[in-house]
Write a structure and sequence with these properties.
It catalyses: (6S)-5-formyl-5,6,7,8-tetrahydrofolate + ATP = (6R)-5,10-methenyltetrahydrofolate + ADP + phosphate. With 198 residues, the chain is of the alpha/beta class. Helix content is 29%, strand content 22%.
């Protein structure tokens, strides 16, 4: 990655992180409710039986309630578990939502770990992002876990990134290893940006 691209990514992430940190509790609650409605509609539209999602942190639109409700409706939901080698293991979500602290202080599911290829059988991937642009290029938070996962999948299913409405941008800085997404879910809308993620 060139220094210019790395610097541009760092600057944009810092700006987005600062904006998220300034959001009120009420704004975060409203965003979480909207994202849950959008994800419910997407799952129904795509007739999803199994999917991956993630457990949101405090400054992200909430995905936790969606995960619990999806499990209760009989959808098999895989949640990511970070590994030191930069890959993701997966664990099946339960409606109790038991979690422990993971590598980077993030909440991660407890229970039996499935290897990185467990996600190859899902109908939909829902992943976090800092921003997504109009072409479907996703800016992550810099660790590369989801880019590696998407880049290694054959026959990748639809991939939707979850962001706030203001984080759908005209363009984000990108490098060769960055992976595009099929679409984006915000608190007010779901946009399909490309027919497939790759």
């Amino acid at each position: 990655m060139s220094d210019a691209i790395a610097d541009a990514k760092r600057a944009l992430r810092a700006e987005l992180r600062e904006r998220r940190n300034l959001l009120s509790e009420a704004a975060l609650e409203t965003a979480g409710s909207g994202v849950r409605e959008q994800l419910d509609a997407l799952v129904e539209q795509l007739d999803v039986r199994s999917m991956s999602c993630y457990l949101s942190i405090q400054t992200e639109p909430d995905t936790r309630e969606f995960v619990v409700e999806a499990v209760r409706r009989g959808i098999r939901v895989l949640l990511p578990v970070t590994r030191a080698d930069g890959l993701l293991d997966w664990a099946v979500a339960t409606d109790e939502g038991e979690v422990a602290e993971g590598l980077f202080g993030l909440s991660e599911p407890t229970g039996e770990l499935l290897g990185p290829i467990a996600v190859n059988d899902v109908d939909l991937l829902v992943i976090p992002a800092a921003a997504v642009d109009a072409s479907g290029m996703r800016l992550g938070w810099g660790r590369g876990y989801f880019d590696k996962t998407l880049g290694s999948m054959e026959g990748c299913p639809p991939v939707y990134a979850v962001v706030f409405d203001t984080e759908v941008l005209d363009e984000v800085p990108q490098d060769l290893h960055d992976q595009p997404v099929t679409g984006v879910v915000t608190p007010t809308r779901t946009l399909t940006l490309a027919p497939t993620a790759r």
